[in-house]
Amino acid sequence: MSTEARPLIIGSSPHIRVRQSVPDIMFHVCLALVPVVVFSVWTFGISALLLIMTTVIACVATEHVSCRIAGKATTIGDWSVTVTGLILGLTLPPATPLWMAVLGSIFGVAITKSLFGGLGYNCFNPALVGRAFLQIAFPITLTTWTPPNLVGRFASVLPSTLTMPFMRSDGEALQAYVQRALEAGGVDGWSGATPLSLWKFSETPQFEELPRLFMGSIAGSAGETATWLIILGGAYLIVRNMMNWRIPVGMLLSAFLLSGAFWLSDKSAYPSPMFMLFSGGLMFGAVFMASDMVASPMTTSGVWIYGFFIGIVTVVIRIFGALPEGVMFAILLGNAVSPLITSATQPRTYGLVRQKNG
Amino acid sequence: MSVEKKGPSSWDVLFAGFWRENPVFVMLLGACPTLAVTNNVINCFAMGISVLFVLVMSGILISLLRNFIPKQVRIASFIVVIATFVTIVDYVIPTISLDLYDSLGAFIQLIVVNCIILGRAEACASRNGVGRAILDAIGMGVGFTIALLCLGVVREVLGNGTLLMNTPYEISLFGANFEPWSIMILPPGGFFVLGMELLVINWFRKRKEARALATAKA
Prior knowledge:
Low-confidence stretches of chain A: none
Oligomer: heterodimer
Number of helices of chain B: 9
Helix content of chain B: 55-70%
Strand content of chain B: under 5%
Radius of gyration of chain A: 22 Å
């Protein structure tokens, strides 16, 4: 070692730092989403590929343009808007017309993120707001599902995907296309519903078998079906310490407990807790959407409350609400209350004694 | 114009409400009917005309009575005057069109508590002569109608694909295959459209001010 004088750096703690930056974390979230995207394209074909590509490109373009309008340096390099685009694409039904996907991307990124000041200032998850906008604007299209593993899914797109902008997607053409593809695959008919709506809206509740739910050979949004890949992605992020594990665990635990209580009260009417966890978007929402760093509380106890709140609201909407799926609105409600949770769970400052009320 | 009068000219009073001091876009008054009834153009038009009528008539009466109303009870007196004309509107509209009356619902009666009318009574009619009160009322009423139509056109075009729906003059803009954005007909659409229009208007205003400042400096 040389004995030359080196500057002595004196700083306050922390002295050991992790080289973890926002672009770094967001890039790894993208990596964790890659298997989900691949599986989605495998089950739903090139329509899903086009859909996800469209949302990613539209989100990145919106971010770039709104940064330019605001006179700021563009922030598309930090991967966060790519994550938004991927998540939005994965939460839409595979047959969503591309123009709606573009509209949702613009709405989510421009209104929820850019207008509030960009990354770190968005009080809601931009992808979810984009999806909620589409869900309320086009309720029928956004609940039109297509079966997985159709024959010929890599040869042609679904007829609704390439609908002209502002025009209605042709539901009959889509149905005919699905029917032809099913017959080519040796299947006679298909109910046109997700496992959740089959349970909720059938005369006698039907419960999809758990292995199929777990492996993802079911109808649903493009990226929410492959539960096992979502768990793998989440585990990867948790191991790399890039996600607060308490949020998904709290959310899944509370959903499990509440739906378990209902299941024990009447096993023929209510689905088992495992069905609740593996169906719909609960797993995807818990791992990739509720854990949004900006829109979740900052304190440890607050994060538990937040996770439990979302899990409970999800189950309540699923069982009592008008919609079969409640994860999206539950997470948005959780986002809305998270500043309140943060301020209510502030830890005691070191050295101060908590004053008794009264 | 006489020399001792230092206030704005009559034209200024009339045109202030149209755009520069627009009750909705600049003063942000009367947001309740603005958000509630603007889901199609004809509702906006009916609401705007009703408010215009109530503004002008109550402006005239309050201006005439301004020296007889005791200061302590002026708000209550204004409300009585306004309520009188709202009642007239409330009886006239169903005789013109019952459907229109049903679609406007309680918002006709709620004109009584519209801040624009009470605000103009307090700020203008109770302090000025009849002529100026009428000009101000017309300006504000037309400005309110313009603002409602700005929202209503966007919401009806996106939410239904038409203009002037529920009238014999209905125009379909996109043909039968248009996919309506049902969120635009629902209350959230009102908030979104008002927010976006305020954004655009304020953006242009800021830019204009910045340019005026730059030229003044240069």
